[in-house]
Amino acid sequence: MATNTFLSSSSSTSEWNYDVILSYIEEETVNNFTSKLYTSLESANIKAFKEDAENFKRGDQISDSLMKGIKESRCAIIIFSRNYASSTRCLEELSLIMECWEKLGQRVIPVFLMGVTGSDIRRQTGSFEEPFRQLEECFDREMVKRWRSDLKIAGELCGWNLKDVPNG
């Protein structure tokens, strides 16, 4: 994985303030999947961090509070849906999560929704293919290479493949 600058060299150990952080693209959480997951985690006394949708808009950079939440979470659940790769904010979140996974031992659990598979993520195919063509035109080559590498690693991790999310 490429070296990132999100974590300072002094943060070799972390104080976990959250059990889990949820990474997702708001527009695509089928049937409020993310909200239901968050509520279920909280009901089970699992301290979860989820940035409120009002705090960011599509395309925004990740906020300081979100960066802090990622660094202070023992585990990250990445909810991959069709348009995840079209959000640079999500890709930056992913890069920080993968850096925390590598340097701090944060556990990372991918969840695949809406027909997205680990293979799509590893290879940036399917709904991940076109966004990367566009990203390569607009962003620094090294940044896109880092995002691709982080997706490849995340797609190789053991997770949950939820083909259909039940209604209600």
Describe this structure in words.
- The protein has helices at residues 33-43, 64-71, 88-104, 118-123, 129-138, 141-156, and strands spanning 18-23, 48-49, 73-80, 107-112, 160-161.
- It is α/β, with parallel strands linked by helices and 168 residues long.
- Helix 2 runs parallel beside helix 3 and helix 3 crosses helix 6 (141-156).
- The chain has a five-stranded parallel β-sheet, with helices on both faces.
Give the C-level CATH assignment: Alpha Beta
Spans of at least 5 consecutive residues whose pLDDT stays below 50 are: 1-13, 53-59
Cα Rg: 15 Å
CATH architecture annotation? 3-Layer(aba) Sandwich
Number of strands: 5
Q: What series of H and E elements makes up the topology?
A: EHEHEHEHHHE
Classify the helix fraction into a percent range.
40-55%
Beta percentage is 5-15%
Strand order, main sheet: write it out: 2-1-3-4-5
Q: Structural class given helices, strands, pairing? A: alpha/beta
Mean pLDDT: 83
Largest sheet: 5 strands, parallel
